[in-house]
Write a structure and sequence with these properties.
The protein is of the alpha+beta class and 248 residues long. The chain is built from seven helices and seven strands. The structure holds adenosine-5'-diphosphate and magnesium ion.
Length: 248
């Protein structure tokens, strides 16, 4: 039936292909603008100065299209999981190391409290890293004058919990209401796809995301990722390298 054929379209793949196509053309556009910018690198007349300003403006717009495209691609890919059994600590450790230079430059005091004995989770490590990074970037942007960023990893009944607490600007109820709507942003250069991507990733893992925020005080995001019972894992005979920390 033709109706069924229509519903079989993979919209994520379609959107991905479309975005790639757009990005190619924007690349060509940007390259030509770059050449044009070189021509007007040292404007001598008011007319040339105006031309240079317009070219700069167009290049910024190109960059914006590339940024939105990349965020959108990450958003569409948020549900293709390549899951492995990992310690959440290993993921957090990696993302902290990656984010350390940014944190230092932004005058942010980053502290992590890992509770001992948290069991492994069956997740896509790259996508979980992506989620934590999106939350960290938001936290950093909410603390333009520096502050504290606290990470907690712990266990709760049936779930591994990750908390991220910042001492940033916090959010008005109006912002809180729209937080997870795609393209909602309060930032001039924002894409509004960071949190919707986090939500999609965590939900694809069967988990949840919660937020508490007080204007002027800060914000706390709580991610809960369900612990998969060993019996439900596709490969029950784990190689010894995947032994849990408690086993060692
Ligand atoms: P973007 O960062 O591109 O604006 P996001 O989806 O990441 O998009 O965030 C949406 C909006 O939520 C932001 O524009 C901001 O207003 C608000 N927000 C997100 N995280 C925080 C935070 N930690 N503190 C204050 N506001 C936040
Ligand atoms: Mg963001």
């Amino acid at each position: 039936m033709s109706h069924q054929a229509e519903t079989a379209i993979d919209f994520a793949e379609l959107a991905g292909g479309f975005i790639h196509e757009i990005k190619n053309h924007v690349g060509t556009l940007n390259l030509n603008l770059q050449i044009l910018a070189e021509t007007f690198a040292n404007p001598t007349t008011p007319q040339e100065r105006r031309a240079k300003n317009r070219i700069d403006r167009l290049r910024e717009e190109c960059q914006k299209i590339v940024d939105i495209s990349n965020d959108f691609l990450r958003f569409t890919r948020a549900q293709e999981l390549r899951k492995v059994l990992v310690h959440i600590e290993d993921i957090v450790e990696e993302i902290i190391a990656f984010f350390e230079p940014t944190v230092r430059q932004a005058n942010i005091n980053l502290v992590w409290h890992p509770a001992p004995g948290v069991p492994r989770v069956f997740v896509d490590p790259d996508l979980i890293k992506q989620s934590l990074l999106n939350l960290m970037i938001n936290a950093e942007q909410a603390m333009p004058n520096g502050g504290n960023l606290t990470l907690v990893t712990r266990q709760e009944q049936g779930a591994v919990v990750i908390e991220m607490i910042d001492t940033g600007c916090g959010m008005e109820p109006e912002v809180l209401k729209n937080l997870f709507s795609p393209f909602f942003t309060t930032k001039p250069g924002g894409t509004g796809l960071g949190l919707p991507t986090v939500k999609r990733i965590i939900q694809a893992h069967g988990g949840t995301i919660d937020v508490e925020s007080v204007v002027g005080l800060g914000t706390k995001f709580t991610l809960r990722i369900p612990i998969t019972a060993l019996a439900e894992l596709p490969n029950k005979g784990d190689p010894p390298t995947q032994a849990t920390k408690e086993d060692k």
